[in-house]
Amino acid sequence: MMDADIIVVGAGIIGSACASRLAQDGYRVLLVDDCQASATAAGMGHLVCMDDHPAELALCSYSLQLWHQLLPRLPASCTARTCGTLWLAEQEDEMTMALTKQQRLQKQGVISQLLSRRQLHSLEPLLTPSLAGGLRVSSDSMVYAPAVARWLADTPGITLHYVRVTAIESGRVWLSAGQSLSAPAILLANGLQANALLGQPLLQAKKGQLAITDRYPPAIRHQLVELGYGASAHLRQGASVAFNLQARPGGQLLIGSSRQYNCSDTCIDGGLLAQMLQRAQQFVPQLEQMTIIRCWSGLRAASADGLPLLGEHPTHAGVWLALGHEGLGVTTAPATAMILSALIQGHTPPLSAEAFAPRRLWSHQEVRHA
Question: Considering the entire predicted model, what is its pTM?
């Protein structure tokens, strides 16, 4: 007798969202996690519509619609609120980027507003007055993702096991204590750890660092992001920083962000952290007077082409993938869950998943002869 209808490996925001959707769809779900630090625990929890790739934009847009249905139901521990995002143009020529972003978002039904220098400073007086302007997306939100993941994992129909998975095979996962669990389907949503279970380097690590200030009287209302963030986020080598700031409930400011491609250690890089904070001070000069009380790092799991892997593994029947979301796991978790649940049931997903099909990273010859 099978232990469950499906085993989901990884209880971060992606795995918990998938497990919750599958349980709501009538599946008996075993959710297995090793309690190690995850990208969910290390990130900002910014629910944001990114437009760097058409498929990415469609996934974000659909997922944000689902988030807006979910936000009113979340408990207070999830600190959910609609804060809006201000995309900041440092120079006049970047206002062209703002206009392009606005046009792309509009095609997905996302409303935004171009802002002049004066309008921007009126909305957020702590920003340096030298900025050229920006773009306001009022519908973007924020959550405390670890609390959301825990809430989703409590969905009736889910049994949660805190144990490490050491190997997988057709219909079975092996655990660190030597036991095994069986199910007709296995869904991997455990980020970089999936590489070892599959014996394939499907994902590369993109290390990121964040810093948080002491508590101060609330003075910033929006999530603040520089318009060059997308270019920094999609670099395929080296290190980069880009300004990203979130006002947390209680008066702390969460400051980002950095990226180090193919870097898998979690030690703080002091030099890169200094660059990140200096970049932030260029946008919000008052940060120089604030006290940083903690810094940490995390590892984003990125696919070779920057898009997530959503669907059945092309050479492992019954093994499904929800991997490679990099920095958009929180934003795209609800849409990922809807897509995977539909695919597993043999239904047409609510959003085309062709661009995310795992088989795109295999040559036709590899799949044919597997």
Answer: 0.94
